[in-house]
Amino acid sequence: MKELDLAIKTAKGAVDLINSKFSTNIGVKSQISRDIKTQADYETNDYIIKRLSKTGINIISEENFSQKFNLNDNQWIIDPIDGTFNLFRRFPINAVSISLWDQGIPILGVINSISTNDIYYACINGGAYKNNEKINVSSVNDISQAVLATGFPSGLNLSDKKINKFINNIKKYKKIRMLGSASMMLAYVANGSFDVYQEDDIFIWDVAAGLSIVSEAGGFYSIKNGSSEYKFRIKASNVLLKNK
Ligand code: IPD
Ligand code: CA
Asked: In 82-203, which residue ranges form alpha helices assigned H by DSSP?
């Protein structure tokens, strides 16, 4: 599929740009509340948009999302850098995330780790891959043996009620991992390192590519409306844990 080739080439080029130009200083531009914006985010965004816009397909990106969003549209959904704070603090969990959606369904997804250069990708009905190897979700079927990957999205209201709900949920699992990059956590669900990913009120661009890859790796996901048009309540896992 030519769009998958383009997405892979674009993600690799974006990772090269970040590693060559921003390896010593990512250029912090603002630190508002729990969010951070950097020159690396903006330049990588421009790099990706320039390449994908040749397809004539609309592009929704974390760095420019002024238009009205409808999940059912045909559109690229991208996050130039997912895990910017990790990159800033040199914690090696961050990625370039590119996906194509149509009619509410992910057509393809590419997650290129910035720190390791591993590339995870999938195309509808084509399976999921890490580099050139096929990947599959885990076969853990008992939630008390499962690893949950989760996080607190930067804009989440951390009321006592929300925190209590969060704690009650995580108690069911054997292990909890919070890595600060939703795309990478989904990549780890797709390759079976983790069993479940769940986050409430996460932006679509943080998870769009990962949901494509989990689903092609044999997993399932649910996507429910969140507190704004770009935010969703997401759960993704192997199918054995779907209703647990
Ligand atoms: C962040 C990561 C993190 C999630 C935050 C996001 P960003 O993405 O995906 O896992 O919990 O809500 O903002 O801002 O580094 O692209
Ligand atoms: Ca981002």
From this structure: 84-88, 160-170, 182-190
Q: Is the CB of 155 under 6 A from ligand 1?
A: no
Does ligand 1 come within 6 angstroms of the Cβ of 84?
yes
- Calculate what percentage of the chain has a pLDDT beyond 90: 88
**SS3 at position 173:** coil
Band (pLDDT 50/70/90 cuts) for residue 101 is very high
User: What spacing in Å lies between the alpha carbon of 188 and ligand 1's midpoint?
Assistant: 16
Per-residue pLDDT for 90 more than 90? Answer: yes
Given a contact cutoff of 8 angstroms between Cβ atoms, the answer to whether 106 and 6 are in contact is no
- Nearest-CA residue for ligand 1 atom 2 is 181
Q: What is the pLDDT of residues 41-52, one digit of tens each?
A: 999 999 999 999
Within 8 A by CB and 6+ apart from 94, the residues are 81, 82, 83, 84, 86, 87, 113, 114, 115, 181, 184
- Which of 30, 44, 62, 82 is the pocket-test mutation for ligand 1 (most atoms within 8 Å of CB)? 82
128 CA from centroid of ligand 1 (Å): 23
Report the candidate in 57, 67, 63, 93 with the shortest Cα–Cα distance to residue 78.
63
Note the pLDDT tens digit of each residue in 176-186.
999 999 999 99
Other C-beta atoms closer than 10 Å to the C-beta of 226 total 20
Residue 156 CA: which ligand 1 atom is closest? 12
Residue 206: exposure state from Cβ atoms within 10 A (0-12, 13-18, ≥19): buried
pTM (predicted TM-score): 0.96
